[in-house]
Amino acid sequence: MSTWFLTGASRGLGRELTEQLLARGDRVVATLREPDRLDDLATAHGDRLHRHTLDVTDTARLRAVVDTAFAEVGRIDVVVSNAGYGVFGAAEELTDAQVEDVLATNLTASVQLARAVTPHLRAQGGGRILQVSSMGGHIAFPGMALYHAGKWGIEGFFEAFAPEVEPFGIRTTLIEPGMVGTTFYASSVRAPVLAPYVDSPAVHRGTLPVEDMPGDQAKVVVAMIAAGEAADPPRRLLLGSDAYRLVREALRGRLDEVEEQRESAARSDRG
Q: Which residues fall in a coiled-coil region (predicted)?
């Protein structure tokens, strides 16, 4: 039996992960704003489900919950940083509060969770951290600028963080799904449209029906569990053929741009 800690357990990938882990006999420390949303799972699985109230943007509370969880259950094998949400709208359309909140939830909270669990994982001789990112950590759609800012930011953080903690036996994986049929889109915030953007063909506002999205939520979670248990997990895990195709195209395009600047870049060298 493994023990997993996760944020954002109330819906989507977090709820699916909680269900699959409990069904196979694992122990789960689930954090969410409304723990009673997991009452059915608590009834079915008893003391293998530990629930904690948590708004991940409250860093002091986050650290307290992490400390309590390790004290309660002892060893935690896998930490899953899943909490997050989307904001649709041109950057100009968002309020200052929306900008601050989405970055606090999707970026800062993930950084703080990684920092909070590191001493505990190091003390127990290692462990795993799965950070839910997105293909949106490599590509970007107009109309989702703040969502992408969070995902690109957490990708950069883990790029540096992973080799810092690997000597302690802590392995990290960025989970990068494509478009998955979850509650993510229904629960996303949509900013009021400003007049100059009413007819904009570029601004993506999350209108694709969930049933038309290629990714399967249950299969994504199966892959996440496998990554959490892999002897040599990848630093990044693309999930979905759309993720593979779009990220590959984006990286090749950026590499082509880099190659075009080989000579011009050298003009800034000293001497």
A: 241-268
